[in-house]
Write a structure and sequence with these properties.
Structural class: alpha+beta
Number of strands: 24
Strand content: 15-25%
Shape: elongated
Largest sheet: 8 strands, mixed
Number of helices: 34
Distance between the termini: 79 Å
Length: 894
Amino acid sequence: MANEPIASREFPPAISNNNEAWHTQHVDAVAGKLDVRPDAGLSADEAAKRAASYGANELRERSVRSVWRMLLDQFADFMILALIAAAVISGILGDLKDTIAIAVIVLLNAVIGFLQELRAEKAILALKQMAVTNAIVLRAGERVTIPAKEIVPGDIVLLEAGNVVPADLRLDEAVQLKIDESVLTGESATVEKHGNSLPDPALPLGDRKNMAFKGTIATYGRGTGIAVATGMATELGKIATLLDTGMKLKTPLQQRLSRFGRHLALAVLAICVIVFVVGLSRGEKALLMFLTAVSLAVAAIPEALPAIVSISLALGARKMVARHALIRNLPAVETLGSVTYICTDKTGTLTENRMRVEEIYTDGASTRDWRDTLKEGHWDSLFTALALSNDASRSRDGQTTGDPTEVALYLVALESGYDKAVMEEKAKRVFELPFDSDRKRMTTFHRQDGNTVAFTKGAPESVLPLCTAAAAAQGEAAIDKDSILAAVDRMAAEGLRVIAIARRKWDATPQQQDKESIEKELVFLGLLGMMDPPRAEAKEAVSLCKSAGIVPVMITGDHAATALAIARQVGVASDTDSVVTGPELAAMDDQTLRKRVMDIRVYARVDPAQKIRIVEALQNQGQFVAMTGDGVNDAPALKRADIGIAMGKGGTDVAREASSLVLLDDNFATIVSAIREGRHIFDNILKFIRYTMTSNSAEIWVIFLAPFLGLPIPLLPIHILWINLLTDGLPGLAMAAEPEEKGIMQRPPRAPNESIFANGMWQHIVVIGLVIGGVSLFAQAWAIRSQSAHWQTMVFTVLTLAQMAQAMAIRSDRESLFTQGLFSNLPLLGAVLLTFLLQMATIYVPWMNTIFNTEPLTAQELFFCLMLSLVVFFAVEVQKWMIRAGLIFNRKNA
């Protein structure tokens, strides 16, 4: 019996792993294997037992991190761990001021990263809740609506237009049922379904026309099917399992900072040992030299760097949300700025994911601008046919529903003044011969003015042979079939889907049963070329990507001609570029693909595994790859790419879960804004690294070189720690607010394997660091030679103010501060002024003199310190002048 207790029997493994070729079996055999009656469905008790055995009809998600784990992960970084160790050492040595300072900065970094990740997770959860979650099933002979996650193998599921298919179904009944499977196969055209068994077990998903797959959408008609697979056993689930494979890739910034941290730690350790040994050899106290070495180590490590990075990324992420881009993890902001290739899907990403009439052929001529055409000849009959012979409809709020092809025909007629609702009052439909895949056409019959008129539409190869010379009996001239076929071939080559329209009239209504006798002697009215059109902003977005040195590549499951036509329209491919199809790609070995991959711009008819292969081939060539997409078939490549960019409005949950960035408006152009912001952020991070490492190197030069120049140790440990805290703090944070530089989208991406210190960075650190160290030591030597008792305070002041002068000068790698404007970054200007005031407080506030072992400077001494500090400003300005003059090469500004 169908509803006997489940506990006493086991279901076949095929129910759980979906390996059985359900499409090859008769629906009665499927019902027998799943032990269900198609007219009654499962009982509530049995459904509950099956749910307990096979689990919920949901895709397995990655484990969600707890709040505490999310918070602790903020500390899992080498730089953070090094800072914590430095704080502990400082605390053991009794220097609680530095311990507190480090602890505050580390906690600030952790809180910023934690809050951003938490906010992103909540936003993703809100996106999930927008998805359709209910389904209609038969339970004990009654139609009931249940949450889709409660569907089990054996459930009888009822589908109507607009429904999302809740599980993999073997269709039993399909009444003009059409399903949009673009999220699974990449095909923009809907698939007409039927309930007959199919003989070939190896049919691709797109050809299994008696199956409906989880996550696809019914666009027309209705149907009934038996759930043969749920959850991870569905075809959608099989693709989702690919997301669990592969390693977690580090972003470019993570890789660079990791290398930077390791090298810096070794260098600082070596320098501190040298300073300690040299100090002892000069007779300095061991405790003083030990504290100096530890202080120097703390100063050399840019403890504000992780905070600056996180704050910069968080600010960028907040800006992107305002521009409809949701960052799912902060480092992805920077990765966008390093991307060299964007592999984009076509359907719904570069195109609108809806069909639109692009060209009309009638009366021997073709046009793409028919709106202003005088409607003579067959134009009136053609638009009348388009209005009356489709099943699209329009709601009161103006929304058009139906099959995408039908909607396109309905709209082109409506835009030309042929309103279906009005015309049907005078030409009511009598009956129809529905479309089927064998005839490749459909015919509708209408009673008009006492006569019957029939309109036939379908594939040209199906309709044209029916338009015979006998049409002359209806007062029509003979048609030139060769010219019509030439027009069909040309439109198809341009990526258009071509439909032929014809007409026939009778004095009396013909018999519906005799299809062959009534679909003949037709009058040819015209051809319509349709396409899923490119988004209006796609061409400009692609152009901007190219100007930024980023190569866009289209990867789609659609037809080759259509893919190439769209790619050429939006600028992804040129007129000389060709398309590589999935079968051609499968025939290539990995070595051949690696050789060709950087020259291919369009891939068509590819499957999910091939998308991953393309991404990996580009990565093997040293490229950083972004993958955009909205469908389930895009998800594995989104996960494997350096950054996955998913659609949040029309995309799938699986794609969003696999991505680093979600486009909330599904707009390809939003990626350009994200790339711009990514470059801007990375520029500001590099400016801070340049600034802080130059400043830290200056402190090292001052301590390291003084003994070799015969000078005493210039600074006390408290001075080093104060300078480090003061100069790295507020000015560094203010650099995150620096406006973007000119031409940011007219330069190539940063080379993926390029070091942080490339492009003149290390030269600047060494040279300007020596300049800062030199003027500081000059102040010490001058003061000692002048027998000033304030020499240590002067070194302390010059070293601090010179770093502020550098902060103002390095706001741009190329432009002078006088061109940028002093007030173009008010936060930085404020930070510099505040730092200046705090430094003056250590000199002129009595109680701070005691803490910092300083003495008030005379007006002459202070003026001398200010002039020496300005030397650094003009040194950087001269360096930028040399870059503008071409005396120093700078890749970014070349």
